[in-house]
Amino acid sequence: MAVNLAPIRLLTYNVHRWGDDRSAVTEVITRCAPDVALIQEAPTWWGTRWRRRAFARSVGMHYVAGAARTIALVADPIRWSVARRRIRRPLIRRWKRFWTLQLPGGAVAVRGGEPPITLIGCHLGLANAARPAELQQALRLSQPGEPLMVVGDVNERPGGPVWQLAATRGLADVTAADGPTFPASHPQARIDAVWVSPGLSVSRIDLAPLGLGHDVLVRASDHLPVLVGISSSQASVR
């Protein structure tokens, strides 16, 4: 189904708790200039909401939603409605007889446009067998019959169970031809996903013309940002 959608610039980015180089993270997001930024591993310490809002202002955006360490920033808050969901995660085995809790997971969704599109950001956990159930929880933020994009750090290479689940839900892997995203210093694995429903055209936007070279990307985070342009399947993406 073709979708007549105004172009959207979306960034998905694991910022490693802003713990590497805050000024570099700020530079990356500012130069990407997204309409929507779906961020993973945002910090969760005391005073987080105030700090997240202040950080959003520093990159010319607005903090509109957060669930655990996943947050949504938007350039125009009037344009989007938001939803959030905590993701249940199981215990994870560290050694033969030792199990430990994982940090809580979360998914956020922004919905807007005409016709409406839902953009979901999520961060899946480290337990291999649990990730499909986590993705199922995130997908509950979608709206039946409406265009959908799901992005985030899925902690799994293409071909794994969550990638297969996304395909069975009709979501295409639109960055399959692009390179790995982790680790930023020497990328070897594409674990940051961009999945979309039919009727959408998505193109990855090259970061080099934006002035984002290897040095600043490595200083900013252990993941590379993924910046894409979204439009209807009948329109070009700038």
Automatic annotation (TrEMBL):
<dbReference type="InterPro" id="IPR036691">
    <property type="entry name" value="Endo/exonu/phosph_ase_sf"/>
</dbReference>
<dbReference type="InterPro" id="IPR005135">
    <property type="entry name" value="Endo/exonuclease/phosphatase"/>
</dbReference>
<dbReference type="GO" id="GO:0003824">
    <property type="term" value="F:catalytic activity"/>
</dbReference>
<protein>
    <recommendedName>
        <fullName>Endonuclease/exonuclease/phosphatase domain-containing protein</fullName>
    </recommendedName>
</protein>
<feature type="domain" description="Endonuclease/exonuclease/phosphatase">
    <location>
        <begin position="11"/>
        <end position="223"/>
    </location>
</feature>
<dbReference type="Pfam" id="PF03372">
    <property type="entry name" value="Exo_endo_phos"/>
</dbReference>
